[in-house]
TrEMBL record:
Classification via InterPro entries: 6-hairpin_glycosidase_sf (IPR008928), 6hp_glycosidase-like_sf (IPR012341), GDE_N_bis (IPR032856), MGH1-like_GH (IPR054491)
Origin: domain of life: Bacteria
GO biological process: carbohydrate metabolic process
Protein name as catalogued: Amylo-alpha-1,6-glucosidase
Domain Mannosylglycerate hydrolase MGH1-like glycoside hydrolase: 335-588
One Pfam match: GDE_N_bis
Occurrences of domain Putative glycogen debranching enzyme N-terminal (ranges): 10-192
Length: 686
């Protein structure tokens, strides 16, 4: 993972991670460089003046797609009276453009040798992530009169980086140089374009990165302004809430990913740096979080996931008919089937969640046409749940990877190797069935029944789905309840033995509606109790469990997205005050991350640390962490579509003051919601 002092700019699948000077000097194992569609197109980009490296005075994050660096030659102790300064301005918009300005502040003229070292290793993102760079193709460099072309070929797989400059320069195989003369108080400027090319077997451009000229930069700026204008406005007496919301809306714009087959339509990419691509689960959950604010993302997500729904049995990709994909990649390892992500279907929860999103989207938007358009995809999803996912034959959804070389062991959202365990800390055999997935299946069947009855003209199918849902709920509450603890087990093993640890997954069960009413209060108390609730958010694994670790990836950290769904679940069962408690914790934590919540942070008790402890390899920005404050706003305000109207039933903490959410879009047009904090969270926490 890139260290925290790196500077990041992004636009969908294209992003740059660099040092505070703007330089890139990547190692095979660090995600620094210029990346696009899972390939690193620049691994070295180092600017020198008269052979001297530059030192940073400051840098500005101008927008998510552009940054500016102010530099001087020499070490920090040498530039108190610097006579020369350098400004680097760069932007991404499919590709990469850098403007370099050099200013002479001396009273005499200077002659300068300006050099940019450029290198391209064309590393696949998986090679960087797995810390193995073992290229099997050949790299080449071609010096042309007006550009430097660096490429990589392996069979029919070919990628090129093409570098050109607005000012006369001398190109060589490892970069380009300028000789310039500056009079006193004179400045020199050049614009450098870096295009990223993917070439087909006939050498035809399959994809050409956009050249980020001034007009394209203005187009990006205009697009961002339109995106912000379409989103509801949030005003709050608690200044940080409005600021966090604004940061989230901008980050959602940055994370918009346009798959090659969609002609410019976008859905949320999962997160920077490792997951700037399409993920079934992540995109769906992000859309659920953001529906009241950015509903257009949901329609695109549903259409593309439906179009790529599984059609055959393929053990390498873990594809089945009706299964919704987990992950799609475009790099070398996917092209040569060294990784199965072309696409990969090893997710056990994306399929029921697909139906959940479609129903929720219709409730907000009234888009009956899309529900009818995706009827067969939904029917195939139900068939997958019933016929392909029930590996044990007891009516639950199970998983066990068929691709034992490169497939995921755990195919739930807690997908690290040790995330599923018994209370004694040992790991269960496969297949495994996790609790929240059964909740998603229950919810999908209940929602699918509504769609069948109201839109597909099939009341018989609706009745069938409701019967199946009722039977699932009865079985689940019998088999998964841990009587001694008063909560639901994390998972079952193939013999029906419970993985009887207390986890945040119980909050997802509340959200799905599968929890029996007479058990909901016990679950709610756990979610705000000292073992799960850190004061900042809900721990993934409860304190006191054998595998608990406050900085364990899924074994004790706080995931903001996870906490947001726990809050939504609490609200569903009428525990509005408890939902406000944990919502308040996450929103407080956001203040320490400048409004940009990371993928995860430490599960240490709030009184112990006074601030949320950063998780060292967390993605940031990450889509469902970005969506978390938006879902928490919805939860605290009690925003729910109801019979074609928007219902508002707020429950806010006292210290939050007044919140206004203006122009909430939906089938009702646009409406406003207002609330004032009235809950004493200190009493509730006690």
């Amino acid at each position: 993972m890139a260290p925290s002092h790196t500077v990041r700019i992004l636009d969908g699948s294209t992003f740059v991670v660099c040092e505070a000077t703007g330089d890139i000097e990547a190692t095979p194992t660090e995600p620094t460089g210029l990346f696009s569609f899972d390939t690193r197109y620049l691994s070295k980009w180092v600017l020198t003046v008269n052979g001297e490296r530059l030192n940073a005075l400051s840098y500005d994050d101008l927008q998510y797609f552009e940054s500016r660096f102010f530099l001087v030659p020499g070490l920090a102790t040498h530039y108190v009276d610097a006579k020369l300064s350098i400004i680097r301005e760069r932007a991404v918009g499919g590709s990469f453009r850098e403007n370099i300005t050099i200013l002479n502040h001396d009273e005499k003229a200077v002659d300068l040798q300006v050099r940019m070292e450029a290198g391209c290793d064309f590393a696949d993102l998986f090679e960087v992530k797995d810390e193995i760079l073992n290229k099997k193709g050949e790299t080449y460099a071609e010096v042309e009169s007006d550009r430097l072309r660096i490429g990589y070929r392996r069979g029919n797989f070919r990628r090129e980086t093409v570098i050109s400059s607005s000012e006369p320069t001398r190109y060589d195989r490892t970069g380009f140089s300028y000789t310039i003369h500056l009079e006193p108080n004179e400045q020199w400027h050049t614009a450098v374009d870096v295009q990223t090319l993917a070439l087909g077997p006939d050498h035809r451009d399959l994809r050409i990165g956009l050249r980020v000229h001034g007009t394209e930069r203005l187009a990006l700026q205009h697009d961002l302004e339109e995106w912000i204008a379409r989103a509801p406005k949030v005003n709050s007496e608690h200044d940080q809430v409005a600021a966090t919301y604004q940061r989230c809306i901008v980050d959602l714009a940055a994370l918009r990913f346009a798959p090659l087959s969609l002609g410019g339509q976008t859905l949320p990419a999962a997160g920077l740096p490792w997951f700037m691509t399409m993920f079934g689960r992540d995109s769906i959950l992000t859309c659920l979080q953001t529906l009241p604010f950015t509903p257009e993302l949901s329609a695109t997500t549903l259409r593309i996931l439906g179009a790529l729904q599984g059609t055959r049995c393929d053990d390498f990709r873990e594809e089945d008919p009706g299964r919704i994909l987990h992950e799609m990649r475009y790099g070398e390892s996917a092209a040569f089937e060294e990784q199965p992500h072309s696409p990969y279907y090893g997710s056990v929860d994306a399929t029921p969640l697909f139906v959940v999103l479609l129903d929720e989207y219709e409730r907000w938007s009234g888009d009956a046409a899309l529900v009818k358009e995706l009827e067969q995809e939904c029917r195939r999803a139900f068939r997958w749940m019933d016929e392909y996912a029930d590996l044990v034959g007891n009516g639950y959804i199970w998983y066990e990877r068929r691709n034992t070389d490169t497939g995921l062991e755990n195919q739930c959202w807690k997908d690290s190797w040790d995330s599923i365990s018994y209370a004694d800390g040992s790991l269960p055999p496969f297949p495994r069935a996790t609790c929240e997935v059964q909740g998603y299946a229950y919810d999908a069947k209940m929602r699918g029944a509504r769609l069948a009855r109201e839109f597909w003209d099939d009341p018989g199918f609706a009745d069938q789905l409701e019967r199946e849902a009722a039977a699932l709920k009865e079985r689940f509450n019998r088999d998964w309840w841990v009587e001694a603890g008063g909560y639901y087990a994390l998972a079952l093993d193939p013999d029906g033995r419970q993985c009887d640890v207390l986890t945040s997954n119980v909050g997802h069960l509340l959200w799905s509606g599968i929890v029996d009413e007479d058990r909901a209060e016990q679950v709610a108390h756990h979610l705000v109790g000292p073992r799960l609730f850190s004061g900042w958010g809900v721990r993934t694994l409860a304190e006191g469990e054998v595998r608990y670790n406050p900085i364990g990836y899924h074994n004790g950290t706080v995931w903001p997205f996870d906490t947001s769904f726990c809050a939504w679940g609490l609200r569903r069962y009428g525990f509005a005050e408890e939902a406000a408690v944990i919502a308040n914790g996450i929103l407080d934590a956001a203040c320490y991350f400048d409004g940009r919540l990371p993928e995860a942070f430490g599960g240490y008790q709030r009184e112990q640390t006074k601030f949320p402890v950063e998780y060292p390899t967390a993605c940031s920005p990450q889509a469902w962490s970005t969506g978390a404050p938006l879902l928490l706003l919805r939860t605290m305000l009690g925003l729910e579509p109801h019979e074609g109207h928007l219902a508002v039933e707020p429950r806010l903490p006292v210290g939050m003051g007044r919140i206004e959410v203006l122009d909430i879009p939906g089938r009702w047009g646009r409406v406003d919601a207002f609330a004032r904090g009235r809950l004493d969270l200190h009493k509730l926490a006690d």
